[in-house]
């Protein structure tokens, strides 16, 4: 009798069952390796998907052209889902950066569907690999009973491993994990990307370069001629969009000056973003004043307030609140699209275009804003309004009724620096202090503004527009003297040029 058949029956069964399970595991790994990568066309570009063995469930996104990516522990299971962006639809990304929620929603739906299809296809290849190895083993297995046991246990293990892994991944899937990913990079990109998420002090080559740019610009501006020897100064920024890399160099530039941050601190304003951003925003200066933007939530604004940031505007009622800064009366309006419900649901509107009648909603928001402004007693010297279209609606309405009191309206949202003069009313947009967010870092410049007020009167004298691209080292600063660009005190606009181009300053007849 062969040695194999002389062993105890229980031991033979255990060894065959163990062999079957090992062959199934190896077959899945082999099938995943041999499976062709599936691809899908989405609104943001073409994406390929791949599944591989992992000790724990993980989703990985890679951008090969930039040589960086991120990981998220989004589910439990013995596999990793890897997505690679193979081609890029830049126009769609530009719309998404401007707040076009439809691009993000469409892409998310397409990616979810494509990822699910890719996982099912890869598991089919894995099951085929497992059955192939079992078949080969059965052909060389001489013991008929052992062969039947091998195929029975192996078949059951193939179904159990595939169905069990898929069910576990589906049951444990956590979409919120993508709000707190781990970034990784290779080569030169390492210093630019790695320090985003959880460092106590977010520093990197990106932030260091930005800091050196700001110091150089600050020196130049400090030496620029000014029409008066003294002034009261403050800084204006908006649209941080969760880019923690800029926090330390910005805080060094601002110093003890008041820093007014005009909305869009996060991308979605969820719990993870609030936890990451609140202490960092608070560290931007000794006097940080904030209003909400359309990307923000009441939870994020409450987190900022808990860290010592002075938050203006009641998001629940839409009413402005007031404070004093550098001796001027400041009113801050909450954004009408600030989310005030529980959590951060995917269905919540982020732009007016997400509503049934965008034009009517925007008109209603403008009308309510003007009514709330008219109720302010005394009338403010400064107003913070995140969305530039709403800020302009207020400026034009006041100008049309002949408003003669000096008023500065501080705004953001467009990520574009701009100054408008409407007779006694000046509208200032400092650009995106977060370069549109971490995913646009390197493509969109960082922008902020320093405002200089006359020491004796609450009147804006000049504005310094600062624009920097930390990755390339390119930067520029423009000092705009209000009376110089609009000497008649009527209506004119100024837009700082893109880095490397000539400035644009033009008058518009009133």
Task: Give short descriptive properties of this protein.
7-stranded mixed sheet; 510 residues; 12 helices; 2 domains; Purple Acid Phosphatase, chain A, domain 2; 8-stranded mixed sheet; alpha/beta; disordered C terminus
The mean pLDDT is 79
Number of strands: 21
Can you say what the CATH homologous superfamily of the largest domain is?
Metallo-dependent phosphatases
Radius of gyration: 29 Å
Write the CATH architecture name of the largest domain.
Answer: 4-Layer Sandwich
Oligomer: single chain
Q: Give the spatial strand order of the biggest sheet.
A: 11-12-13-14-16-15-20-21
Number of domains: 2
Distance between the ends = 108 Å
Class by SSE composition: alpha/beta
CATH fold name of the largest domain: Purple Acid Phosphatase, chain A, domain 2
Uncertain regions: pLDDT < 50 for 5+ in a row? 186-205, 223-229, 500-510
> Quick one: biggest sheet?
8 strands, mixed
State the name of the first-level CATH class of the largest domain: Alpha Beta
Strand content: 15-25%
Please state the overall shape, judged from the principal axes of the Cα atoms: elongated
Compute the number of helices.
12
**Percentage of residues in helical conformation:** 25-40%
